[in-house]
Design goal:
Layout lengths: L8 H4 L2 H11 L7 H7 L2 H13 L9 E5 L5 E5 L2 H18 L17 H19 L3 E6 L3 H4 L2 H11 L3 H12 L15 H21 L5 E4 L2 E6 L2 H19 L8 E4 L4 E3 L2 E3 L4 E3 L1 H19 L5 H15 L5 H10 L9 H23 L1
Antiparallel strand pairs: 1-2, 3-5, 3-6, 4-5, 7-8, 8-9
Helix pairs in contact: 2-5, 8-9, 8-10, 10-11, 13-15, 14-15
Length: 371
C-alpha cells in the first residue's frame, strides 16, 4: 500500500462510481420524497453532479438541523440527498481502501465486520488472558468530552494531508470538512454526516498510534470515543491516564470526560452496551430499564387498541438480537412474561420459541469459543 493517496481523484470520478454511491445512499430510504424526485431524472442528475465536482463548482448544500434525546440530547445535521451521494463516493473510493487499513486491529467503530459485539468479544478475551497471566489487575476506562463538537477542523485537515498527496483530493477534503460552518463555529464536525463518523475515527487514530507505538500498551480497545486499557496496578492507571490526557490536549485539543476513571477488574467493564466480566457478560442496566419502559408503553397502547403488533415484534426481535450476546435467558423470559399484548396474539409461541433458540445458539457459540 502506498504511503500516501496519489493522483487518483479524476480516475475515481466516474459516472459508474457515482451511480453506485447513489444506490448505497438510498438503501432503506428509497421511498422518501427527495430520493424519488432525484431518481425521476437520475442519469441527468448524476452527470451534472460529476461535472460539478470535476469543474470545481460543486458546493455542499444547506444543513437541516433537528434534535434527538436518546440516550442524550444531540443536535443532528442532515444534508440534501445529492450531498449524501457525494459522501458515499468519497468514503468508498478514498477513505475505505487507503486509510481504514492503517487503523489498529482493536479499533471497532464504523468498519465492516466489526462493531460493538466484536468489541466486547475481544474485551472479554483480553480480560481472561490478563487474569490468567497476571492475576488481579485494573481497568482504565475513558471517554472524551463532547467529542464530535470539539474536533478541530484544522487539525483534522492536517491529519488527512498525511494520507493524501493528490492536490485535488486535498482541496475536496477541505471543502467537505469546512463547508456549512457559521462564523462562530470554529470547532466540531456535524453529527449525522456519513463522512463525520470516518473523520472522527481518523482523528482518534492518532491516539491509537500513540497508545500502541509510544506507550507500548498491548491490551487497548477503542469504540469511537470510548476506550478501555488493562493495566497491572492503580499507579499505572494514574500514570497512563495523565499521559493520554496530555497527548489529547496538546495534539488534538480534546479533553477526557470527568467520567473517565480506573477501578479493579472485579467490578466488570461497562462498555458497548454490556457489563463484561471474566466469567460472563450482562446487559447494561440502562438497557434493561429502557426495554421495561417500552413494554409498559406497548401494554398501555394495547389496552386502547392502538398498538402496531408488527412493529412491536420487530422491536422485540432487534432487542433479543442484542441481548443474545450476553447471559440473558432469565431476563428475556421476564420481559416476555410482562408483554401482556402477546397473550392474545397467534405469533406468541412461535416468536418466543425462535428468540429463545437464538439465545441458546449464542450460548453454544460462546462455549465453543471458550474451548
Amino acid at each position: 500500500m502506498p504511503k500516501k493517496i496519489g493522483n487518483c481523484f479524476d480516475k475515481n470520478l466516474t459516472f459508474e462510481k457515482l451511480m453506485k454511491a447513489h444506490y448505497r445512499a438510498r438503501k432503506h430510504k428509497m421511498y422518501k420524497k427527495d430520493i424519488i424526485l432525484y431518481e425521476m431524472n437520475l442519469e441527468h442528475n448524476i452527470i451534472n453532479l460529476k461535472n460539478s465536482i470535476k469543474n470545481n463548482t460543486y458546493k455542499v448544500g444547506k444543513y437541516r438541523e433537528f434534535k434527538v434525546y436518546d440516550p442524550k440530547e444531540r443536535v443532528i445535521k442532515s444534508l440534501p440527498y445529492v450531498d449524501r451521494i457525494v459522501h458515499q463516493w468519497y468514503i468508498e473510493e478514498f477513505v475505505k481502501p487507503y486509510i481504514i487499513p492503517r487503523f489498529i486491529d482493536s479499533s471497532f467503530a464504523c468498519m465492516e465486520n466489526k462493531g460493538t459485539h466484536k468489541a466486547v468479544e475481544l474485551l472479554q478475551k483480553y480480560i481472561r488472558i490478563y487474569k490468567r497471566n497476571f492475576g488481579d489487575f485494573w481497568i482504565l476506562k475513558c471517554d472524551i468530552k463532547k467529542f464530535f463538537y470539539n474536533i478541530d477542523p484544522n487539525i483534522l485537515l492536517n491529519i488527512m494531508k498525511k494520507y493524501i498527496r493528490d492536490k485535488k483530493l486535498i482541496k475536496f477534503t477541505e471543502l467537505l470538512i469546512f463547508s456549512g460552518r457559521t462564523p462562530n463555529e470554529n470547532v466540531g464536525i456535524p453529527i449525522g454526516n456519513y463522512t463525520s463518523q470516518y473523520f472522527a475515527n481518523i482523528y482518534l487514530n492518532e491516539l491509537d498510534q500513540y497508545v500502541k507505538r509510544v506507550l507500548k500498551i498491548k491490551y487497548y480497545i477503542r469504540y469511537m470515543d470510548d476506550f478501555i486499557i488493562l493495566l497491572r496496578t492503580k499507579k499505572e492507571c494514574i500514570n497512563i491516564k495523565n499521559k493520554i490526557s496530555s497527548f489529547l490536549r496538546e495534539n488534538l485539543k480534546l479533553e477526557l470526560n470527568s467520567k473517565s476513571r480506573y477501578y479493579p477488574y472485579k467490578m466488570g467493564v461497562n462498555f458497548c452496551g454490556y457489563r463484561t466480566f471474566t466469567t460472563h457478560r450482562l446487559l447494561r442496566n440502562s438497557s434493561k430499564k429502557k426495554i421495561i419502559r417500552k413494554v409498559k408503553k406497548w401494554n398501555n397502547l394495547n389496552k386502547n387498541n392502538l398498538l402496531d403488533i408488527q412493529f412491536c415484534l420487530q422491536s422485540l426481535n432487534s432487542w433479543i438480537g442484542h441481548v443474545s450476546h450476553c447471559n440473558s435467558y432469565h431476563l428475556v423470559n421476564k420481559v416476555f412474561n410482562n408483554c401482556n399484548f402477546l397473550y392474545n396474539n397467534s405469533f406468541k409461541q412461535e416468536i418466543e420459541k425462535e428468540l429463545i433458540n437464538d439465545i441458546e445458539n449464542n450460548k453454544l457459540e460462546n462455549i465453543n469459543k471458550k474451548a
